[in-house]
Write a structure and sequence with these properties.
mainly beta, 6-stranded antiparallel beta sheet, 398 residues, globular
Length: 398
């Protein structure tokens, strides 16, 4: 099953006691740090050769935003900030050993406050869309914020991506950071006090592992994911239309004009949605009918529903030789080609991110699952534990 009962709700109470502070919200940052994110008056804390912690910015309530960087013996590094439990950087080598950042993002904190495209963020309480922001649980109707008219998207106006998370030390043989957050009953319209943790760890096989866990004191719905935008050629290198994509999914869930699933589960064979074999991301764009033109669809993974773990997707960049293999225990993966990027964001190296600047592959449950009985359930009950793991493995094709 997706959700397993491993310990009682008493763990949740203990977590509330630890997290008594109210979360901090985002607004304009009037005092951004200089380029590179480091405050000249703030020191960097180093934990051996594998982890550093440094100041990254301030939210409008004078809450300090901290950036954690994990580094393995190969020199690969991953940076995560506690605002939104957000991946800001992933640096990996190409076939010639040249390191580049392969996710879209910024060197300073301030742009993240104005950004609306969830670069690298942990999204929830419900990743993806819920039709008209409505769902029913135990015969109670709930109304969420309509932040993506006419639907709810990624948890609402102040979803997990706009919350300041708490840091916890991780007892681990590899570099790791755990971030926790208490989402209170009624936040953004969702029921139940939900305690969430996300643990990021990096091993010497160039695998970034993201482990999610959650408990609740009231029946609720839950769908967690990471929203990193990948460009394996380098985050400022242009579009991903020539990248080869493989999705281990025979089926997908068609959507209506507002990107809400119709409830159907259709075969991809013989359609522009077929990525069972390595296929250029832009090979069939002209055959699609959605606007803006591009992919933004949930794929039903072949590995099976619920806790079955397996390979979900592969992306290969012919130019750099970089390869990304994504494995997960989630039942679906949202394949998105950056259709809504407009070039308005100026990222690293002062370059704009145009349409199709990156690929997003969100491992998750299906969009609008609470309103479709034939989709895997996203209900979490008191006394149950939610656990999920996604692994991003980076390598090179010679």
């Amino acid at each position: 099953m997706m959700i397993r009962s491993l310990r009682g709700p008493g763990r949740v109470v203990a977590c509330w006691l630890m997290l008594g502070c109210a979360p901090l919200f985002a607004a304009d940052d009037k005092t951004p740090p200089p380029a590179g994110g480091a405050d000249p008056d703030a020191s960097t804390t180093t934990f051996g050769d594998t982890m550093t912690k440094q100041y990254f910015g301030r939210n409008p309530h004078n809450g300090m935003v901290t950036l954690y960087t994990l580094t393995n013996k190969n020199g690969m590094s991953v940076s995560i900030m506690d605002y939104g439990a957000t991946i800001t950087s992933i640096r990996v080598p190409d076939r010639n050993g040249k390191f580049d950042d392969v996710v879209l993002g910024y060197d300073r904190f301030a742009p993240y406050l104005a950004m609306k495209d969830y670069f690298g963020a942990t999204v929830g309480r419900y990743a993806n869309r819920i039709a008209r922001g409505r769902f029913t649980l135990n015969k109670v109707n709930y109304q969420l914020a309509i932040n993506n008219p006419p639907n709810a998207l990624h948890g609402g106006w102040f979803g997990f991506n706009r919350r300041l998370w708490n840091f916890e030390q991780v007892d681990s043989d590899i570099p790791a950071v755990r971030l926790t957050y208490l989402s209170k009953d009624g936040e953004e319209g969702y029921p139940g006090n939900l305690f969430v943790s996300v643990t990021f760890s990096l091993n010497d096989d160039n695998e970034l592992r993201i482990a999610y866990a959650a408990t609740t004191d009231k029946t609720t719905i839950l769908n967690l994911s990471n929203h990193s935008y990948f460009n394996l050629g380098g985050a400022a290198s242009g579009t991903i239309l020539d990248d080869l994509v493989t999705l281990h999914a025979d089926k997908f869930t068609p959507v209506d004009a507002t990107l809400i699933p119709t409830g159907e589960i259709k075969d991809v064979a013989g359609t522009p949605y077929d990525f069972l074999q390595p296929t250029a991301a832009g090979a069939h764009l002209k055959e699609l009918k959605n606007k803006p033109l591009g992919y933004d669809f949930n794929y039903v993974l072949n590995k099976g529903y619920f806790s079955d773990y397996g390979l979900a997707a592969t992306v290969q960049d012919p130019g750099s030789g970089r390869r990304l293999d994504i494995s997960t225990d989630q039942p679906g993966i949202q394949f998105y080609t950056g259709n809504f990027l407009t070039g308005s964001y100026v990222g690293r190296e002062r370059k704009r991110y145009p349409q199709y600047a990156a690929i997003v592959l969100e491992t998750q449950h299906f969009p609008d699952s609470p309103n479709h009985d034939n989709f895997p359930s996203t209900v979490l009950q008191p006394g149950e534990d939610f656990h999920s793991t996604t692994v991003y493995k980076f390598s090179v094709d010679k």
